Amino acid sequence: MTAATPAPIFDHLLRMTDHRGTFEHACFADPRPEHGYCADDMSRVLVVAARQPKTEGDVRRLASVAVRFLNEAQALTGACRNRMDVAGRWADEPAFEDCWGRCVWGLGTAAARSEVGWVRQSAIVQFDRAAQGRSIWPRAMAFAALGAAELLTVDPDHRAARALITDYAATVTEPSSNPAWPWPEARLTYANAVLAEAMIAAGVVLDSPPLWQRGLDLLEWLVDYETADGHLSPTPVAGRGPDDRRPGFDQQPIEVSTLADACARAAAVDAGAIWTAGVRAAAAWFQGANDASQPMWDPETGGGFDGLQANGVNRNQGAESTLAVLSTLQHAQNFSTVPQ
């Protein structure tokens, strides 16, 4: 048996959150209100808060703040704004880009998992609005498919969710014909594992073993490719191609948490030990099992550090990085007592 992993600690996230939302950026541990909020982060807040078991008080409040924020972010067409300033003014126009996909993901997760009744009901209403739209961007559609899959676990007959995930499945790109580089893109870029995870989720919902197997195969390749010297070595901000030198920096915590999300989903479909190992490796990355042997979070407050660089750690503790830690530790706790 393995030792229990650290529990998610919400102190820093709560400090970063006011009545409107969670501030996007921090200077070290201090929130930077002047940079405002974004729907990308509030969708992640909703996911993490909704799936945290036995929540009370302040953590429950996070889900309420997030679902209200996303409601305001949505247009009647279902499109989503992303950026709000500290005074509550939107800085962009509604669109069907990544923030829309993450919004659908958050809403579907809350509809399926939140312990707060009004949050679940509000999330369903907002999901139906958002699910009117479709995106031309693969990652946006992949995130939206994850939200649809979550909602369908509790309401298999939900028409809008089933239509969305069916449309997503029709857009899935075939793997490359190059066995050394099966990834469907010329380079790894960002949130790579979500492409494989969405295939797995859609394949399960649509009872399509070839689709979920395609996702499992791509994810297995990705986990292997993103591992070096016994630890995760994720794709850096600049991306990664087959001829790039390793390791690459600046590494972002969100890449690690996306991989943990995908491995956790894969473990529910396939008994391969690689998935449990993948989740554990993601948690270990934050605890210092990485290319710089540096911890990537503050275990006292739960704050996540913003980037792993060749010359050290970016110790600013923004919302995205903190949510990446929380999300990864949620999964790791579920696997902490599973025999290796």
Please explain how this structure is put together.
- The chain contains 12 helices and 8 strands.
- It is mainly alpha-helical and 340 residues long.
- The chain folds into 2 domains: 1-23 and 172-340, no CATH class; 36-157.
- The strands form 4 sheets. The protein has a two-stranded antiparallel ribbon with strand order 1-2. The chain has a two-stranded antiparallel ribbon with strand order 3-4.
- The longest helix is centred in the N-terminal third of the chain and has 17 residues, at 57-73.
- The protein is globular and about 45 Å long.
Quick one: biggest sheet? 2 strands, antiparallel
Number of folding domains? 2
Care to count the β-strands? 8
Order of helices and strands: HEEEHHEHHHHHHEEHHEEH
The stretches of 5 or more residues where confidence is low (pLDDT under 50) are none
Span from first to last CA? 7 Å
Our count of helices gives 12
Strand order of the largest sheet: 1-2
CA-based gyration radius: 19 Å
Q: Specify the overall morphology.
A: globular
- Give the % helix: 40-55%
Structural class call reads mainly alpha
User: Strand portion, in percent?
Assistant: 5-15%
Rounded mean pLDDT is 96
Attribute tags:
340 residues; mainly alpha; 2 domains; two-stranded antiparallel ribbon; 8 strands; 50% helix; 6-hairpin_glycosidase_sf; Glycosyltransferase
In terms of topology, how is this protein built?
Layout: H1 11-15, E1 26-27, E2 30-31, E3 37-38, H2 39-51, H3 57-73, E4 83-84, H4 98-113, H5 117-130, H6 138-154, H7 159-171, H8 193-205, H9 209-225, E5 227-228, E6 231-232, H10 253-267, H11 273-286, E7 307-309, E8 312-314, H12 319-335
Antiparallel strand pairs: 1-2, 3-4, 5-6, 7-8
Helix pairs in contact: 2-3, 2-4, 2-12, 3-5, 4-5, 4-6, 6-7, 6-8, 7-8, 8-9, 8-10, 10-11, 10-12, 11-12
InterPro entries: 6-hairpin_glycosidase_sf
Protein name: Glycosyltransferase
